[in-house]
Specification:
Layout (H helix, E strand, L loop, with lengths): L2 E4 L2 E8 L6 E5 L10 H7 L4 E5 L16 H14 L5 E6 L1 H12 L4 E7 L8 H14 L2 H11 L2 H6 L1 H12 L3 H13 L13 E6 L7 H10 L4 E5 L5 H4 L1 H15 L5
Parallel strand pairs: 3-4, 3-5, 5-6, 6-7, 7-8
Antiparallel strand pairs: 1-2, 2-4
Helix pairs in contact: 1-11, 2-3, 4-8, 5-7
């Protein structure tokens, strides 16, 4: 994978597709890597120039000492776009990646053509929740959290029907660097964009999972009320709707971006 250095962090990224196609930046969730978006490579790679990257502290990106902030993650995303030679992109983020996308919509509006905010919230849980998560990982590592996370990431039906997929994502989470995971938990502990996202002017699609216990549909509705003309679509999925309902997810993203017009790097 190519990489770019920013603020003491090596950010690994991959660019796929025709450079003449509209650019779509994909930002991953806590405990995942750029491979979170494998179903989108298959479903959207022929239409978009896909730019995937590992959030700092995850995957093959480096793990600088924390704390991290949502501003830091947003500036990382801009550095990836710069390295890929893209001046303006459609931006899709899931969970933590959705917060990063919202930050871009507020603070780097000229770089954002449209926003797709998947399984996310302007404020995800509360500070106590993330402090307890940090303490748990510091004490025992990630492995004790992995099975419970799979129950949040995927519905019971999907876990029974596609154990191969669940095993693959389980391995992804289990192999996350604990220090990077904790530092990004700190981002989630501190980030509250509820007051800021009213400034977003980019056309916005919010995707929720009907069975998502982390960021339920009520969180999507809260985003919709704050971003002018934002749309919400709800899929029959838990937290990783882009995996569990990949075809529907890809269709919603493609239809939305096609309606709003392409961006070119």
């Amino acid at each position: 994978m190519p990489h770019v250095q920013r603020n003491g962090c090596r950010l690994n990224y991959v660019v796929e597709g025709d450079p003449r196609s509209p650019a779509l930046l994909l930002s991953n969730s806590l405990g995942s890597t750029h491979e979170l978006w494998a179903p989108q490579v298959e479903g959207l790679g022929s239409v978009f120039r896909l730019i995937r990257y590992d959030t700092r502290g995850h995957g093959s990106s480096s793990v600088p000492d924390g704390p991290y902030s949502i501003e830091m993650l947003g500036l990382d995303a801009l550095a990836v776009l710069d390295a890929a030679g893209v001046s303006c992109a459609h931006v899709c983020g899931l969970s933590l990646g959705g917060l990063t996308a919202m930050w871009l919509g507020v603070h780097a509006s000229t770089r954002v053509e449209t926003l797709v905010l998947a399984n996310t919230a302007a404020r995800i849980r509360d500070a106590q929740f993330w402090e307890e998560r940090i303490d748990a990982v510091r004490a025992s590592g990630l492995e004790p959290l992995v099975d419970a996370s799979m129950a949040r990431w995927f519905t019971n039906g999907f876990r029974a029907a596609r154990p191969d997929v669940v095993t693959w994502y389980r391995r992804m989470l289990a192999s996350s660097p604990p220090a990077g995971y904790m530092a990004c938990c700190g981002v989630l502990r501190d980030a509250d964009l509820r007051g800021a996202i009213g400034e977003i002017t980019a056309p916005t699609l919010v995707i929720a999972g009907m069975h998502d216990p982390v960021t339920p549909p009520a969180d999507a509705d809260a985003i919709r009320t704050r971003i002018r003309d934002a749309r919400v679509t709800v899929l029959d999925a838990a937290h990783l709707s882009n995996v569990e309902q990949a075809d529907a997810f890809n269709s919603r993203v493609l239809d939305f971006i096609s309606e709003k017009g392409p961006a070119h790097g």
